Amino acid sequence: MFQLIYAVADGILRKYQTEAEFSNYKEHLPTHIILLFQRFKRAYDGKNIKALQNCISDSFNSDCLGVNKLECLNLIGSFFNSFPSGFNPFLTIQVEQISVNNKQHFVAVIEMNVKLKMLNIPLPIHCNQDLLICEAKPEGDLNYWRIIKIQRFKE
User: Which of 37, 110, 121, 140 maximizes the CB count within 10 A of its CB?
Assistant: First the structure.
């Protein structure tokens, strides 16, 4: 999966050579955001709470996934535990619009869609599909990108 996303990102880089051209295309995601969403999806699909914990900031807040990081992880963990044996989540994240995109802050309207897989076969069942505002920032000495906020999108 990483190789596919990398190939797409590399193709975009080659197509839009100048910074001015590059920033005009909102469908482009910076590599650090692609990697963050990839880590989040891999952890979510694998029902790996520890890996999810590394994708979410300690200062995380939300109006739909629990108020803070601990509540968010507990809510997601309960969701995972509700699946019968052989069923797993299958998360897709689609970026609808980027509001802020710089080296210190990323804000976008995203659509998170959770489907189910049974024995690794996708089922035509959707658990939820919401438009959300997602914010992410780099943290710590290594500038490791984490999600700091997820809010419901309200028009």
Answer: 37
